[in-house]
From TrEMBL:
Record protein name field: Glutathione transport system permease protein GsiC
PANTHER family assigned to the protein according to its UniProt record, in alphabetical order: DIPEPTIDE TRANSPORT SYSTEM PERMEASE PROTEIN DPPB-RELATED (PTHR43163)
Subcellular location: Cell membrane
Domain ABC transmembrane type-1 per the UniProt entry, residue ranges: 108-313
Originating species: Octadecabacter ascidiaceicola
Domain of life per record: Bacteria
A UniProt-annotated Pfam family: BPD_transp_1
GO cellular component: plasma membrane
Entry keywords, A to Z: Cell membrane, Membrane, Transmembrane, Transmembrane helix, Transport
Key word Zinc present: no
InterPro entries for this protein: BPD_transp_1_N, MetI-like, MetI-like_sf
Gene label: gsiC_2
Length: 328
């Protein structure tokens, strides 16, 4: 138990260090974007004096190091700052201004809803198909499943999205093509409008998880304890589900966690295609208008989600490893 706790604490410490380094990269990269917010809102006819005034009001005239530590201090106190695009310059930072947290909260909630719907479809489907592919390996079903997964992995997200729109919204109007959800929408209607982006993401992530499940189980089928289970007369399905699958959990958990992280950090293209009001759509819109605080906050949320889910995968893999849970 002590060895497991030590490894978990090491992983947590490494995650915090990684997040700190990533925050530096995010801040430098975002502030290196071409263009200037002050010039963007004032237009081409802006005078240098007016541009300098807005930059001073926004703190953009401060050295990069000073701005980074001010931003980091705000992150540590959960103060994401004020959105440049929603500022009330007549009452800077006061009434009429919208904070980054107020902008991101509903968008993040929408993205989490989409990720949850996708995960509820994709994870059981991928594990089930992976078990069947391992059970009937080298058969027509296995070859068809592998062909389907390779096609899904090879196809860009926007292509898959437009194919689903064509077949499920245009030729056969089963689901709406636009996911214009809003706060207070009934759950059933919200779910219906989220189905096409959820199915698109399902096609993208199911393939990777299914192939990993299949490979992990097949690697264990030649193990002595699997041979013993077969000699006892157990059915092939029972051998895989009861004996092979529990010992294949570590790699499966890792790939599931990576794909769940993708559902939060990699939804930008899908949200743009379906006009889904999630954090990915907000990120794209904020980049267009150089809303630096929102862009930085979105990037940090993406990085934190990815690191957190990877840490969770590492910890669950450690806990599911019998050699660590039951040392000699």
């Amino acid at each position: 138990m002590r060895s497991i706790l030590k490894i978990v604490l090491q992983r947590l410490g490494l995650g915090l260090v990684t997040l700190f380094v990533v925050s530096i990269v995010i801040f430098v990269a975002v502030n290196s974007l071409p263009g200037d917010f002050a010039e963007a809102i004032l237009g081409q006819g802006a005078t240098p004096e007016s541009v300098a005034t807005i930059r001073r009001d926004l703190g953009l005239d401060q050295p990069l190091v000073v701005r980074y530590f001010d931003w980091l201090k705000g992150m540590l106190t959960f103060d994401l700052g004020t959105s440049f695009a929603q500022l009330n310059f007549a009452n800077f930072g006061g009434a009429g201004s919208v904070t980054v947290a107020e902008q991101i909260a509903p968008r993040l909630s929408n993205t989490m809803f989409l990720a949850t719907v996708t995960a509820c479809i994709a994870v059981p489907l991928a594990v089930f198909l992976g078990i069947l592919a391992a059970l009937y390996r080298n058969t027509a079903f296995d070859k068809a499943a592998n062909m389907f997964t390779l096609s899904s992995i090879s196809s860009p997200e926007f292509f898959m999205a437009y194919v689903l729109i064509l077949f499920l919204a245009v030729l056969n109007p089963v689901f709406p093509s636009l996911s214009n959800i809003f706060e207070g929408m009934p759950f059933g209607e919200r779910l219906e409008k989220s189905m096409l982006p959820a199915l698109t993401l399902t096609l993208v992530v199911t393939a990777h998880m299914m192939r990993m499940t299949r490979a992990a189980i097949i690697n264990l089928l030649a193990s002595p304890y699997i041979e013993m289970a077969r000699l006892k007369g157990l059915s092939p399905m029972r051998v895989i589900v009861k004996h092979a699958l529990p010992n294949a959990l570590a790699p499966i958990i890792n790939v599931v966690a990576l794909n769940l992280a993708y559902l939060i950090t990699g939804v930008v293209v899908v949200e743009v295609v379906f006009v889904y009001p999630g954090i990915g759509q907000l990120f794209v819109d904020s980049v267009k208008i150089r809303d630096i605080p929102v862009v930085q906050a979105c990037c940090l949320i993406f990085a934190a989600a990815y690191i957190l889910l990877n840490l969770t995968a590492d910890i669950l893999s450690i806990v599911s490893n019998p050699r660590l849970r039951h040392p000699k």
